[in-house]
Amino acid sequence: MLRQGDTGDWIGTFLGHKGAVWGATLNKTATKAATAAADFTAKVWDAVTGDELITLAHKHIVKSVDFTQDSNHLLTGGQDKLLRIYDLTKPEADPEQIGGHTSAIKKALWYNNDRQILSAADDKTVRLWDRVSMTEVKTLNFNLSVSSMEYIPDGETLLITYGRTIALYNSSSLELIKSFEAPAPINSASLHPEKDCIVAGGDDFKLYKYDYSTGEELESYKGHFGPVHCVRFSPDGELYASGSEDGTLRLWQTAVGKTYGLWKCVLPEELVSENSDAIYNVSSELKA
Amino acid sequence: MENPPLLPQVPVIRLPRPPSPSGRGFDPSSPRALAHHAADSHQKIRSTLRERFLRSLLASSGLPVTFTMYQRVTVNAEKFNACDMEAYNFQVSNLQTPLGVQDEALIRGPDIISYSFCI
């Protein structure tokens, strides 16, 4: 499903997968979408018309898809432990394959201006690969399986979550900068584009907001009534979205009370003097 | 003892538009679809037409031209010189009029239906 980022308005639904969709992404210009699904395929869609463009058959469940910046190549990863690189200009051609992970791949991302690939798998490793030589450059080992990764190229930061830990790495050296512990297992976290704060969500249904520099817990929000599986900041940092097992996707304001998207800032005196019947008084989250 | 004050509620103008019960969306007339498609083709056609018009002006400069105007008036000029940016005035030399030949003349653009010249 494609929705407008600032308002949450529905744009359209990509219809075609015959199994659960595990991963989805847009290209840089939002003209194409790619999805990874449990029907052993990854699909590429026209994000303007909603048409299915390409179906890429896999040998097992596909969990992650990622476009290069020029949208010509698609990286996929999934249950069969292999990374695949498809040339979208020649979709019939066999993909390039990179093997090495010993368990299912959870997430695979283009890294370092598409010259490298970063992948996280259930084998409790995050591996860095060279695109040209297709060899492993570096491995990060963890005591638990990595639940999510976010790469912020402009901020030269890599955010990795595992267990209750939210860890920040320097993206070029892959050295640990710092890490925080959350009160519950975390499934996903996102760093504000200006590095003000980190939001995270996980098994206790709550969203946590941490100060980037001190690691102090700033807020926690209740709203979801199921585990949170994915949290992401918008590119402008004004809001973040959380997706949960409760079947809802919620949009949250970074600075609560601003006029932005469908939120309307109303000063207390206006609430009293003005007839605000037209304005729904819904709390800061929006139900999808 | 009063309860502690609740956090201020942020009102919204409306709720997000939900999926339509029929159809898969991607309205081709939506601003987003138009921005992606129409902008391409429409703007390309406009710029091609504009470029052709400007080239025709350039090609006709210095040549004899015939203006077809309203009320079946046709006038000839020995030489077409230039027109202004908005195509509001056309400057010609030796314009043949029923009153005689005007050495230099400006013809108002809105009066002209078409003008032609031989390459």
Order of helices and strands of chain A: EEEEEEEEEEEEEEEEEEEEEEEEEH
Model regions low in confidence, pLDDT < 50 over at least 5 residues of chain B: none
- Kindly state the number of beta strands of chain A: 25
One letter per element, helices H and strands E, the order of chain B comes to HHEEEEE
Strand order of the largest sheet of chain A: 3-4-5-6
Quaternary organisation of the protein chains: heterodimer
Please name the CATH architecture of the largest domain in chain A.
7 Propeller
Instruction: Please write the CATH class name of the largest domain in chain A.
Output: Mainly Beta
* Rounded Rg of chain B: 29 Å
Count of DSSP H/I helices of chain A: 1
Supply Rg of chain A: 20 Å
Biased composition (Low complexity) (chain B): 22-32
Pfam family, one (chain B): Gemin7
Region (Disordered) (chain B): 1-41
Protein name (chain B): Gem-associated protein 7
Key terms:
heterodimer, A: 288 residues, mainly beta, Methylamine Dehydrogenase, Chain H, 2 domains, 4-stranded antiparallel beta sheet, 1 helix, 25 strands, globular, disordered C terminus, B: 119 residues, alpha+beta, SH3 type barrels, 5-stranded antiparallel beta sheet, 2 helices, 5 strands, elongated
Report what the structure shows.
Chain B: One of its GO terms (cellular component) is SMN-Sm protein complex. Chain B: It holds the Pfam family Gemin7. Chain B: Residues 22-32 have a biased composition (Low complexity). Chain B: This is Gem-associated protein 7. Chain B: Residues 1-41 are annotated as: Disordered. The complex is a heterodimer of chains A (288) and B (119). In chain A, the strands form seven sheets. A four-stranded antiparallel sheet of chain A has the order 3-4-5-6, with no helix packed on it. Chain A has two domains: 1-141, Methylamine Dehydrogenase, Chain H (7 Propeller); 143-288, 7 Propeller (Methylamine Dehydrogenase, Chain H), CATH 2.130.10.10. Chain A starts with a strand and ends in a 15-residue tail after the last helix. Chain A has one helix and 25 strands. Chain A has 288 residues and is mainly beta. Chain B is elongated. Chain B is an alpha+beta fold. Chain B has helices spanning 31-36, 38-60; strands spanning 65-69, 73-83, 89-97, 100-108, 112-117. Chain B starts with 30 loop residues before the first helix and ends with a strand. Chain B has a five-stranded antiparallel sheet. Chain B has a single domain (34-117), classed as SH3 type barrels (Roll). Classes of the chains: A mainly beta (288), B alpha+beta (119). The A-B interface holds A 1-4, 7-15, 31, 48-50, 251, 253, 256-257, 262-266, 268, 276, 279-284, 286-288 and B 7-20, 24-28, 30, 32-33, 36-37.
